[in-house]
From TrEMBL:
KW Repeat (keyword) present: yes
GO cellular component terms listed in the entry, alphabetical order: nucleus
Gene designation per UniProt: ppwd1
Gene3D superfamilies to which the protein is assigned, alphabetical: Cyclophilin-like, YVTN repeat-like/Quinoprotein amine dehydrogenase
Species name: Cavenderia fasciculata (Slime mold)
Ranges for region Disordered: 1-85, 245-266
Protein name per Swiss-Prot or TrEMBL: peptidylprolyl isomerase
Length: 782
């Protein structure tokens, strides 16, 4: 990935104008950081200081806000400390740099997941609590019963390796060393377990005298020692351990040929130092490898930087402030917000913090200044819902259920803060950086957002249609798997397989979102939800019953004009969705057309006769309507059932192109188009015959697929052109057999503009096959 970028930059260096553009965008943050340094240090001359102050005053008077409509978030940047104090409650900060374009953005996006559904999920003994990705291509997961599982990343997907019962009860925290060789886990049983990741085995364990809360591996570039920092639930202290004995270190220095994976951890159960610069228990600790510093945050919002070298209080290289008062690191305490997660970018320049006030704060590590603030509060989410932006809009019933889950998550975290010695928090809603440091990845009520921090736009929303799963605890894999000698896999030149591994609230599974959609299979045992744990007969019976009753929640209609993605509502209208999806799976819709196209109204299909008079349900009789007060024809692109009156639903359905509220409580709404609206509008614009309502432009095929099966279930043929001859109107088709079968029973009407054609005025016209220019023509006599 990096080599591609470097190659393109090298090519562009041959063109001075393009090179200047690249330098502008890639150095824009550095330029503004230098401006902030000059202001903080007061080393510039008086005229420069006055100019800077005047600019800041102007921006303060104008109250500049950055509110990009495409981001659905409130993104801000800091320039003036006074403005921060005045507006901290609203988190509205003035901008100190221009938003530009990200060069080679598509190359970066190609190394990020893009699937709308999770590809696979795997089970644990109980609800999953942690997931991590190591640099050695291992994925480590943990659950609330104390089990830890090791998985090996394969060129596609993962492979199970081993499972351990690490703790008797809740696991408080797990941490993987920066080199990916060591794993530490701590639990409420006061045990500390240290694993050799490469050999997936426990090498050392000891018991603490306190209840541990958080753990983190730290090390120095100038030393081979690996230290372990563990915080306490009962106090604000952080304990530092050196798990490796002096004897083992000497052996490793003598045996230079030995690999790091052959190390054996000994002793070190006594802390070498206790740090006490926090006022409340510390629940978040991260190591910044670039600047050789540790960042710790307590439950009161206090943020501290400290050195990774004994005595762990030395000067941190690269930090550009002397006093915390010159930074924005007190912002959490000013807002009385409790941080929930902490992450560091790959280059060490940025910190991401999610707090219980639903604000995502991005700090510049070296200056301590706020770089961005994104608003994910309930007020902002409700505002987006009212705006009905198709990217974020959720059906009212589903939205209410999701909001209830959000409140439950907040309540669980609050209970954890109030009962530190007994409870664990829900999985962290962490904010990830990609390896290029240009994109933020985090989950919210809609799904998993990917934000371009340079352009300040949401570029992707993953997993929105997974409406029964609230993703949490993300971990990103962007490496290239090259095999593993321990597992007997050969090294190979493999393509990148970017994957997001994530947990879900109160779920026994962890999930994979990649660049692949779920595989097509009719066997539930080979589906995307893998049953890798033993289940009881009762549980299996309930699972089978649930699987039998489960209906698809998504359909994709593929046409020659593009794809139409529809969300279905099986909870509100199960019988209608069952009828629609069963017909699709059985191929009932093969060989039919969009027989009714009315501009500024709708497009209709689903009739095997192709004239609006045919079609029946899967029960071979009409079935009742399923009206719901939350599902109305109050917006365009609504999927609804056609009928001939109350309780006469069969197989025909239509998609509206405008709001048609007069159809409420007359036609059953069972879906919405959430992507491909332009395709529906293109179908609406096709030319139609003067005396009939069916389209005359090519719409070769439509494929309807369930969210769990990408299989072809229906093909609809339509007219491709018409010719006027002395004998009458000649209609041209692309496929002979299907079209001939349709034409033998075709009925036309002389009524042009009525919504419901009068069946009494229909006339059946004779057909005559005419072959011309290797096409199949049908002649209609007048």
């Amino acid at each position: 990935m990096t080599s591609k970028i470097n190659h393109l930059i090298k090519e562009r260096q041959q063109h001075p104008t393009q090179t200047r553009n690249i330098d502008h965008y890639t150095s824009i943050i550095q330029i503004n950081r230098d401006k902030e340094m000059s202001n903080n240090n007061n080393n510039n001359n008086k005229r420069e200081v006055e100019d800077q102050e005047s600019l800041e005053n102007q921006s303060s008077r104008k109250k500049v806000k950055e509110d990009e409509s495409s981001t659905s978030t409130t993104s801000t940047t800091t320039t003036n400390k006074k403005n921060v104090k005045k507006q901290s409650s609203k988190v509205v900060l003035t901008s100190s740099f221009m938003l530009g374009e990200l060069p080679f953005e598509q190359l970066y996006l190609d190394n990020l997941p893009n699937s709308q559904m999770y590809e696979k999920s795997y089970m644990h003994k109980d609800a999953c609590s942690h997931v991590l990705v190591s640099k050695t291509d291992y994925i480590i997961t943990a659950d609330i019963l104390g089990y830890i599982k090791f998985w090996k990343k394969q060129p596609q997907g993962i492979e199970f390796v081993k499972t351990f019962r690490s703790h008797q009860g809740l696991i408080s925290s797990i941490s993987v060393s920066h080199d990916g060789l060591w794993l530490c886990s701590i639990g409420l049983d006061k045990n500390v377990r240290i694993f050799d990741v490469i050999n997936f085995d426990v090498t050392f364990s000891f018991k603490t005298t306190y209840l541990p809360l958080a753990c983190q591996w730290i090390y120095s570039n100038d030393s081979s020692k690996q230290y372990l920092a563990i915080s306490s639930r009962e106090s604000s202290d952080i304990y530092i351990y050196n798990p490796m004995s002096e004897q083992e270190e000497e052996e490793q220095q003598q045996e230079s040929s030995s690999t790091s994976s052959s190390k054996t951890l000994l002793g070190g159960s006594t802390p070498i130092q206790t740090l006490s610069f926090h006022k409340k228990p510390v629940h978040l600790i991260k190591f910044n490898t670039t600047y050789q510093a540790v960042i710790s945050i307590d439950i009161g919002g206090g943020i501290e930087y400290w050195s990774c070298v004994p005595p762990f209080d030395g000067q941190i290289q690269g930090v550009e402030f002397e006093y915390k008062m010159d930074t924005d690191l007190y912002d959490l305490q000013k807002s009385k917000a409790t941080p929930q997660s902490l992450n560091i970018s790959a280059n060490g320049k940025y910190l991401s913090i999610m707090a219980n006030d639903k604000k995502i704060r991005i700090f510049n590590f070296t200056t301590g200044k706020l770089h961005r603030v994104y608003d994910e509060s309930f007020d902002h989410i409700n505002e987006l819902q009212r705006s009905e932006d198709p990217t974020y809009y959720i059906e009212p019933t589903d939205f209410g259920r999701r909001m209830a889950v959000e409140r439950d998550i907040d309540s669980s975290f609050e209970n954890f803060i109030n009962n530190l010695t007994k409870l664990n928090p829900p999985p962290q809603n962490n904010i990830l950086f990609d390896e290029s440091n240009n994109f933020l990845i985090y989950s919210n009520i809609v799904g998993i957002k990917i934000i371009n921090m340079v352009t300040n736009k949401v570029v992707r929303v993953l997993g929105k249609i997974e409406n029964s799963t609230r993703f949490l605890g993300l971990a990103l894999y962007q490496g290239k798997n090259s095999g593993d000698a321990t597992l007997g896999t050969k090294k190979r030149d493999a393509e990148n397989d970017p994957t997001i591994f994530c947990l879900a609230y109160k779920k026994q599974r962890f999930y994979m979102l990649s660049r692949r959609e779920p595989e097509d299979t009719d066997n539930p045992e080979l589906g995307r939800d893998v049953f890798n744990e033993k289940v009881t007969k009762d549980e299996m019976l309930l699972s089978n019953l649930h699987a039998q009753r489960q209906l698809p929640r998504n359909a994709v209609i593929h046409t020659t004009l593009g794809d139409i993605h529809c969300q279905l509502f099986p909870d509100e209208c199960p019988k209608t969705v069952e009828n629609f999806t069963t017909h699709s799976k059985n191929g009932y819709y093969d060989g039919i057309i969009f027989h009714r196209v009315i501009k500024n109204f709708m497009v209709q299909t689903g009739d095997p006769l192709g004239d609006g008079t045919g079609g029946t349900s899967i029960w071979n009789k009409d079935f009742e309507d399923e009206f719901n007060r939350n599902l109305r024809h109050d917006r365009p692109f609504t999927l609804s059932m056609a009928n001939a009156g109350p309780g006469t639903n069969g197989s025909q359905f239509f998609i509206t192109t405008v709001p048609v509220t007069r159809l409420d409580n007359k036609h059953t709404v069972f879906g919405r188009v959430y992507k491909g609206m332009e395709v529906v509008l293109d179908i609406e614009k096709v030319k139609t015959d003067k005396n009939c309502w069916f389209g005359l432009h090519s719409l070769k095929s439509i494929l309807i697929s369930s969210p769990l099966r990408e299989r072809q279930v229906c093909r609809i043929i339509s007219l491709s052109s018409q010719l006027q001859t002395a004998k009458g109107t000649v209609l041209c088709f692309n496929e002979y057999e299907t079209s001939e079968r349709w034409l033998t029973s075709l009925e036309l009407t002389n009524i042009r503009d009525k919504e419901y054609p009068d069946t009494n005025t229909r006339t059946i016209l004779h057909t005559l096959l005419v072959n011309n220019n290797n096409n199949n023509y049908y002649y209609y006599s007048d």
